[in-house]
Amino acid sequence: MKNSQLYLIISQLGTIEHRSLDQFVRSPYYNRRPELVIFCNLLIKSAQTKDQIPNTRAYYFRKIFPGQPYEDKKMRYTISFLNKLVKKFLAIEQLKEDQISEQRLLTKAFRKKGLSNIYEKEIQNCLKLLDKQDFRNAQYYLDSYLINYEDYEAFYKAKKSTNKIGKILPKINQTADIYLITSTLKLGCMWLSFRIQEQPDQHQSLLLTILNFVETEEYYRQFPVIELYYCAYRMLTIPEDTAYFDKFKSLIEEHQLSFPVSELSELYVLAINHCIKQANLGNRTYLKELFEIYKKGLEAEVFLSNGEMNSVTYINIAQSGLSQEAYDWVFQFIESNKIFLKNSLRQEYYLYNLANYYNRKGNYDQVMEILRTTTFDETMLELAARRMLLKIYFELNETDALYSLFDSFKNYIYRHKEVGYGKENYLNLIKYAKKLTDINRRDKDAVARLAAEINQTQAVVEKAWLLERVRGLGR
What we know:
75% of the residues lie in helices and 1% in strands. It has helices at residues 5-11, 15-26, 34-48, 57-64, 72-97, 99-112, 116-132, 138-158, 162-194, 201-216, 224-237, 242-254, 261-280, 285-299, 311-323, 327-337, 343-361, 364-372, 379-395, 399-415, 423-438, 444-456, 463-473, and strands at 304-305, 308-309.
């Protein structure tokens, strides 16, 4: 049972949700099978006790149908019935969070029942509810379209005043246009961001048509959601024109309250990825831009999801600040934001960030004190920590420690298959660091050959650091 879809769903619900689900299943409106109440309660207890009770179908069958011989077909039907019930519960819970959709569906029910007077009141309540919300993203225009179309349906099917239809149709048309334009531009940005494959020709054709339309029809540029995604797409496709990036940044900051945090986070990620790509291409000014975007994103709380920060984001923000030598800011960030990491990862990522902070400040004793006594469960962190130690031992000329690290580092790479395609990069780092350590720096030809070999090797991590140290041998 514990591998079933039903158990997986119930195990992911919180305590309050478990209580609500229990009440839902007990409601005769939704369920008239008493065995489902017993079954659901057993599964909730199992999830809450972390599987301390048996999880076989036979066990649950005995509890649900005491005294009856086990029937697999009957048990499978019971699982299926409860599974559908739990899914209905989740759908209703989601609808409760979407007040506008709930109100629109209520309005539709009154229209279909011919309750025109009540309908009129509820459709106005629906429009007021929509206007009260702060967001003006694509979803807002979709909701507006659906509500106004509902109003159109009421008057068209009732064959009432064409005058009102004449007022409704322009709203329907405008909101449909804005939603279509915004969604197409947003999808274009998504294709560019992931680049799993090229966007299919038919969709790309529509995107190009809409881009041309937005550029020629100034009217639609007045809507921030269109202008924002237009600038985002142009930023990604014409990176050399920095005006699009500058406009995109200012629009995010100016209209951040117009988007839910989840979508605002996606917009910040677009800007972040753009900065990283440009910095990797050699435009170092984007490192400063990246740091500023991270700081603004922290103020807007876009890096938190359900009160948690992604551990990689925690590292990337600290790294960005270190690249700008904002040491005091970074230290404060590391300390104050570790509470947002998952408990299981918190100490590891905190210690790594702390070690990296001390490393960039040149406090090698503190770095070594952390890294010598810490083994990271996360492969990415352990590899980064060993790289850090390798460079420190080399700089401090601690040859014995360095040779010991060469061996343990190599063994770690071979033992951990998850290193994957990066294996060669790390093995080459060890190989060339060892050659650097052993080389006769007076042998100019040997130094030149080593520099050429490192230059010609594609798969090597810390390549810039290695080449810098080779150049240092000739001084």
